[in-house]
Amino acid sequence: MRETMWIYVVILFLSETQSVESGTTERAPVNTTFPPITERRNELFSNGSDANLTCTDKMWNETFYVIWKIKLINKTRCEINFDSHGRNSDTCNDGKSLRNTSNSQPYLHIPKFSEDDVGIYTCEFAYRGGATNCEIHVNITVTPEIKAWIEYKNNTMVAVCRAENGNPAANISWNHARNSSVQQLPGINGLFTVESRLELPEGIDPENLSCTISHQNLNKIVFLEYQKVKVYSLWLYALIAGIIIAFLAGLLFFLVMKLRQHQQSDTSSSKSPPIEDVEEVEPYASYVQRVNSIYN
């Protein structure tokens, strides 16, 4: 396709350096090199929005040809191109199309942008007077999930504010900026997680503490009353766990004591001698004595 571009350049050179008016020929010096201008930039679009990409401010009637080479994140490659003779091709077949603005400026239209459209978009654009070549890294914006809580470390109260799995990475700041630290943690699917920790010295009232999370799709202030729920829930969980453990220990102790009592009762009953019925033995003994007295 670059050979085609230089053919257009030669035609442009011949058309601009030679004009015939009233049998005379005029020549004008023209630069015939036209090296492509390489431009690299990043673009972000929200999920579900319509995305438009441009690589030049030239008008459609100045265009010789435009080629969009697309390499998506899922390693799919395709092309969309158009030339001034009306020839066009589209190997993407996913809804992307070349369009014109109201000012006849060409652009690439991506309907309902999603993660499947993330990738590298390269545009080759030849026009009257030159050519340009731009590379656009296209990504999707993801609103992070906000979490905040209070924890204790070495008898020190630490406030934590976190923005999970967003793109681009969020910014976190505190209304009390002392002793704060920010670190970026691994996210999922190439997303970014940012966490800020603030050590609270003695005398600081946590109720007056807040953190601000700034993102392309979000700007939110998180007050400590959100974190207090988490702190109290930890104490509540500990209390419930203690009650359950105490109940189970008491139940186990009761069962052990009942088992011991049962074993002791069985042992005492097995050691007791048999008791004869006196009323049944005495008549027989008196009868024997009477018989013996007769024989005597």
UniProtKB/TrEMBL annotation:
**Where, per UniProt, does this protein localize?**
Membrane
- What protein name does the entry list? Ig-like domain-containing protein
Grouped into one coarse class, the protein's main location is membrane
User: What family does the Swiss-Prot or TrEMBL record give for this protein?
Assistant: Belongs to the CD200R family.
What gene name is listed for this protein?
EMB
List where the protein spans the membrane. Answer: 234-256
Q: Where is the secretion signal located?
A: 1-22
Which chain positions lie within coiled-coil regions? none
The alphabetical list of record keywords is:
Disulfide bond, Glycoprotein, Membrane, Receptor, Signal, Transmembrane, Transmembrane helix
Q: Report the membrane topology from the UniProt record.
A: Single-pass membrane protein
Which terms under GO biological process does the entry name? regulation of neuroinflammatory response
Instruction: State any single GO MF term.
Output: signaling receptor activity
Q: Does the keyword Glycoprotein apply?
A: yes
Residues in Ig-like domain copies:
35-141, 144-222
- Give GO cellular component annotations, separated by semicolons: cell surface; membrane
The yes or no answer to whether the keyword Ribosomal protein is present is: no
Q: Pfam families from the xrefs?
A: C2-set_2 (PF08205), V-set (PF07686)
